[in-house]
Amino acid sequence: MSLSRGLLRDEPSGPARRTLGLDDIQAWEAEGGACRGVEAPHALTHADQIKAVTDQYTAAEIVPKLGWSRAMAEALSAAREGLLHINDAGQVRRKRHRAPATAPGRPVRAERVRLLRQAGFLRAETDRHGQTRLWPTADGHRALALALLNPEALHTDDRAAQQARHQAARRARHLSSDERKARARTLPPLPRGQEEQRRRAAWWEKVKLWDRQDAERRREHERRMRIAAQEEEQRAQAQQAERQRLAKERAEKEEAAWARRTVDTGWRVQRLGRLRREYIIDGHWQVTHRGTRYDVSRERGALWVIAGDNTRLGTVPADTDGAPGLRHLKLLLDASADHQHPGRPCVHRRRTGTAGHR
Prior knowledge:
Strand content: 15-25%
Oligomer: single chain
Radius of gyration: 55 Å
CATH topology of the domain at 45-184: Arc Repressor Mutant, subunit A
Structural class: alpha+beta
Helix content: 40-55%
Largest sheet: 7 strands, antiparallel
Low-confidence stretches: 1-20, 32-40, 340-358
Distance between the termini: 129 Å
Strand order of the largest sheet: 6-7-8-9-10-11-12
C-alpha cells in the first residue's frame, strides 16, 4: 500500500478522512517514513500510532460481538452521508448524492433500520425544511469505524447475522429458550458505549426503585403487623374486661340472691334441736341431723331431701322464706333414721340409680 495512491488525503476540500488503520502505519513505515524522518501524513504522531493499533485490536474484539451484517454497515455508512430519509408514510428511503427533495429514493429494509435504532446506533432528526433524516449517533460512528477496520467479522446477510446472534445467546445458560430467541432478534449496544451506559444507568435506577419499593413494602408490612398486634391486644383486653364484668355481675347476682334468702349472715344457719340447716346456694341447702349430712335441692318446684348414697328420702314443704321447713325436715329425718314411715302425705320414698331421677 502506498501513500501516493491517495489513501490519506491532506486537501481540506477532498472527501472525508478515512480512519487510520494498522495497515496504513505499516505501509508508511515500509516506505521508509519512520526511518528517514519523513513526517507522517496528517501529523501522524506517536499517540496516533498507538491509537491506530489500539483500534485495530478493539475492532477484532468488538465487531464480532455486534452481530452486524454487511447491509447494516452499509446502511450506517449511508446515514453518515445523510442519505437515509423517512418519508411521510414512515418508510426509510436511501437517496443518491445531491438528489432532489422530491426524489423517492430506494427503500431500505425497515427491520434493519429498527434494529440499528433500538441498539442506539441511529437517531432521527428533522431539519427546518421538514425532512426527517437518520444520522449515526456517537456509538454509531464508533461502531462503523471499528467495522471498517475489521470487515471480515461482518456477516454476509441479515439472516446469517441473526443465526450468529442466536448461537451467541445459546451460550448464556441463565436464559430460557424464549429469552435467547428474543435476544437474537435484537442487536446488542456498543460495548462500553453511551447506549450501554444509559441502559446500565436505567437498570441501576430500576434496582434502586425496587429497593425503595421493597423497603416501603417492609415498612407497610411492619405497620400492619403493629396495627394487628394492637388490635389483638385491644381484643384481649376487651375480652378480659368482659369476663371480669360477667364475673362481677354473677357475684352481684349471687350476693343479691343470698341477701333475699337471709336477713343477715346469722340466718344462713338455723337450728331446731339436733337438726342444723345451712344455706349453700340458691335452691340448695345442707342439713345435718344426728351426725348425718343430707342435701336439700329444689328440683321441678319441689324440695327433695337426698341422703349421702343418693337416695331420695322425700319432699318437704317450704317456709315462708322459701327454705325447707325445719319442723318438717326433723319429722322426715327422724322417721328415716328410725326406719319408720308415719304415712304423712309429705313423705315419699324413692330410690334412684346413677341414671338420675324423673
